[in-house]
UDP-2,3-diacylglucosamine pyrophosphatase LpxH (Sphingomonas trueperi), 292 residues
Amino acid sequence: MATITRLSFDVAGLADFHATTPTIPERPIDKRRKYRAIWISDVHLGTRGCNAEMLIDFLDHVDSDIMYLVGDIIDGWAMKKRLYWPATHNDIVWRVLKRAKRGTEIVYIPGNHDEMFRQFTGLDFGGVKIKRQAIHTTADGRRLLVLHGDEFDAITMSHRWLAHLGDAAYEMMMTLNRWLNAVRRWMGLPYWSLSKYAKQKVKNAVSFISKFEEIVAREAGARGVDGVIAGHIHKAEIRPIDGIEYYNDGDWVEGCTALVEQYDGSMEILHWADEMAARESQPESEARLAAA
């Protein structure tokens, strides 16, 4: 059973949080991958669906000049119903603040699940700058609007009760997803997202995602930028929409993905479950080659 700890920080105390000791020590990786920028969102700390260990592994293997936290990092909706905060969730906060202390620029754009932090827009806590939206300029000069995206979700904005009902149904699916992946681990199989598979198969979900992407891209075009980076819908994506470059960094509940910018301005999505599976299979491959 996961160790549950009390949420050992408040917003005002974030500046001193890096002085604590993480439960999972930071791994001394010889060759950490370095990117110009990293975007992650929809971590949902405070819920059982958060793939905390996988995100910790990601944070221990990559660095960047700037990191954007694109909303729903902490799930305030879930924490109003019950307190769930394992030590690994503290470890994620510790790693983010440690990056800020080391000189990484951290920009936090709260979403609908962590909207309680929107009241602190414009302030800086422990090196974490809280903004409602941001403009990121890539190495090759493109201007990208960065936002969570819930403001373009009609259900979230106009029918809040329905959004909470959908959130409850989503939690049920994620519980099933955890049990399924526990069985898969026992069988030696890699992580697989049931909810991601369901979204791809359900016509209404596909239609909603497509409309969301088009609306967000249209708003970016109206603001005169070259592209837009969003979260919210838990679907990592890179595609052009009507002359606008649309990016979504995905989530750390279902897909476990991040969006990154290389130093030449090129962008890509990292699928961390696949990265971990490839890394874990590498020693076996090397052993087979040595035995051949």
Notes: The two ends are 42 Å apart (CA to CA). The helical segments are 52-61, 76-81, 87-102, 154-158, 160-186, 194-201, 203-222, 272-291. The longest strand covers residues 33-40. DSSP finds eight helices and twelve strands in the chain.
